[in-house]
Task: inverse folding
């Protein structure tokens, strides 16, 4: 089940990730990119949760932000 957050909630989650996890967003993006090539959003969220013991909200926010950045590069 995918959780849809408002843009404000998404930004707040992203802002808390470095302090809560001890890793920057860029580090999380690198870790996710180095992980398995999973096609579905929920699969990538579940992998981050299982591999790095992340809460669902943070894993969702990381994967969602990665998807937004990829889309911006593809259309930019």
Result:
């Amino acid at each position: 089940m995918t959780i849809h957050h408002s843009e404000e909630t998404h930004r707040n989650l992203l802002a808390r990730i470095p302090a809560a996890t001890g890793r920057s967003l860029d580090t999380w993006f690198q870790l996710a990119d180095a992980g398995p090539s999973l096609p579905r959003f929920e699969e990538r969220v579940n992998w981050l949760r299982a591999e790095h013991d992340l809460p669902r909200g943070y894993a969702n926010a990381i994967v969602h932000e990665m998807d937004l950045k990829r889309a911006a590069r593809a259309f930019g």
The chain has a mean pLDDT of 92. The two ends are 30 Å apart (CA to CA). DSSP finds four helices and no strands in the chain.
